[in-house]
Design a protein that fits this description.
- The structure is a single chain.
- By secondary structure, the protein is α/β, with parallel strands linked by helices.
- The chain has one domain (5-13, 21-217): 3-Layer(aba) Sandwich (Collagenase (Catalytic Domain)).
- It has helices at 27-33, 65-72, 115-118, 130-142, 166-173, 210-218, and strands spanning 5-10, 44-48, 52-55, 61-62, 81-87, 89-90, 100-106, 110-114, 179-180, 186-196.
- Strands 1, 2, 3, 5, 7, 8, 9 and 10 form an eight-stranded mixed beta sheet that branches. It has a two-stranded parallel ribbon with strand order 4-6.
- Strand 9 and strand 10 form a beta hairpin.
């Protein structure tokens, strides 16, 4: 039984090929979402620590809630530190199994995403990429935000929007995950964690998976992305 409610982004179509997890942080987009006009002068800086690897081949494909529990139980850092886990595939979150691409504690300090979706940096009509929205949406759950329909960040269906209203901003600023540095800047500290089958010296970066993204487009999955849902 999960200790916190889980919310996720759901994919109606699953990628028909094997993948290897990799890390895409989308830092500029994340900072933009958490410093938009609705924050006024109370902007929140997204700060990443070094990417770490966990050799857990059993967790590259998260197929049950028990695996979600196990993954989040590997949390590193204190209670105020958020862990982003990057995996190959995610097919379970909160008792459902419908090809999720992101699952986050609500509230909490852990979430997991499929690497291939976090790396989708194709500009969208909503002003943000799918990758930026996915990471910011799941972080929003950690910060206490529930789903909200419409052209906004917390829409359960991925749509490329990143808008947050005043009520959501107030909820974020009240989160215990928000820290303040010596200059008065609010920030969220994040540990990016890559799940791997075997230890490697280098962490795969987005530039190394361009061919994978090209393959994704080639099999026609790009057209289905607007139907993917966040939880």
């Amino acid at each position: 039984m999960l200790l916190k409610k889980l919310l996720a982004l759901v994919a109606l179509l699953a990628a028909p090929y094997a993948q290897a997890a990799f890390v895409t942080l989308n830092e500029a987009g994340m900072d933009s979402i958490f410093s938009q006009a609705s924050f006024g002068t109370n902007t929140v800086d997204i700060r990443y620590g070094a990417v770490t690897q966990l050799v857990r081949p059993d967790l590259l494909a998260v197929t049950t809630d028990a695996k979600v529990d196990t993954l989040f139980g590997l949390h590193t850092g204190g209670a105020k530190v958020v862990n982003f886990y990057f995996v190959d595939t995610l097919d379970s979150c909160g008792g459902f199994n419908v090809n999720y691409i992101g699952c986050g504690e609500f509230p909490g300090n852990d979430f997991v995403v499929e690497s291939i979706w976090a790396a989708d940096n194709t500009p969208q009509a909503g002003g943000f990429t799918f990758g930026e929205q996915l990471l910011a949406h799941e972080l929003g759950h950690n910060l206490g935000l529930d789903h909200r329909n419409g052209n906004n960040l917390m829409n359960p269906f991925i749509n490329g929007f990143g808008l947050l209203n005043a009520s959501e901003v107030a909820q974020i600023l009240a989160s215990p995950l928000i820290q303040v540095d010596a200059s008065g800047q609010r920030y969220v500290q994040i540990n990016p964690i890559l799940i791997v089958a075997a230890a490697t010296h280098d962490v795969p970066e987005p530039s190394t998976i361009l061919l994978v993204l090209a393959a994704l487009a080639a099999v026609g999955l790009q057209a289905g992305k607007r139907h993917k849902r966040m939880h």
